[in-house]
Specification:
By secondary structure, the chain is α/β, with parallel strands linked by helices. 26% of the residues lie in helices and 19% in strands.
Length: 161
C-alpha cells in the first residue's frame, strides 16, 4: 500500500483520497485540544502560513486515545482550533492511531517510520513529514516543536523547486 492509495474522512465525514495531495509536502499530525502540547497548533499554523504557497499541507487528525484529551465532536474541535489558534489547515475526522481500530493511514505511517517507542504512537502531536512522492521522510516526537521542523520542510520543498 502507498500513501496515495489511502482514503480518509474529513471533519464533515466526507471521503478524501490522499492522492489529492500528490506532489505536495505533507505534515501529518495526531492532535488533541486538551493536551499539554495543544499550543503547538499555533506553531503548526505558522508553518502552514509560511509554506502553503510552496506546496506544503498540514493534515490534522484529532485523536482521543491518549488521556481522552480530544473529547469534543469534530465541529467542537474545529471551532476551538480556529477560534483559539486561527487554524486554516485541513482538519479531518477523529481517528485511532494505535490498536484494533487504528486508521490505515497510521498503519502506513508507522510501518514506514517506526520511530519512538517502536511502532506505536506514544502521544498526541506525533508528526510525520512526507515528501512530494508520498514517501515518509521523517517522524518526530510530540516534544519536537513545529518551528524546529522548518529546516526539514524547506529541504523537501526545495527538492522540486
Amino acid at each position: 500500500m502507498k500513501l496515495y492509495d489511502i482514503t480518509v474522512k474529513d471533519a464533515s465525514g466526507a471521503d478524501v483520497e490522499l492522492s489529492e495531495y500528490a506532489g505536495k509536502v505533507l505534515l501529518i499530525v495526531n492532535t488533541a485540544t486538551e493536551c499539554g502540547f495543544t499550543p503547538q497548533y499555533g506553531g503548526l499554523q505558522e508553518l502552514y502560513e509560511r509554506y502553503a504557497d510552496k506546496g506544503f499541507e498540514i493534515l490534522d487528525f484529532p485523536c482521543n486515545q491518549f488521556g481522552h484529551q480530544a473529547p469534543g465532536t469534530n465541529e467542537e474541535i474545529g471551532s476551538f482550533c480556529t477560534g483559539r489558534f486561527g487554524v486554516t489547515f485541513r482538519q479531518f475526522d477523529k481517528i485511532d492511531v494505535n490498536g484494533a481500530n487504528e486508521s490505515p493511514l497510521y498503519t502506513f505511517l508507522k510501518s514506514a517510520k517506526g520511530g519512538f517507542g517502536g511502532s506505536k504512537i506514544k502521544w498526541n502531536f506525533t508528526k510525520f513529514l512526507v515528501d512530494r512522492h508520498g514517501e515518509v521522510a521523517a517522524r518526530f516526537a510530540s516534544s519536537k516543536t513545529p518551528a524546529a521542523l522548518a529546516g526539514e520542510i524547506e529541504k523537501l520543498i526545495g527538492d522540486s523547486e
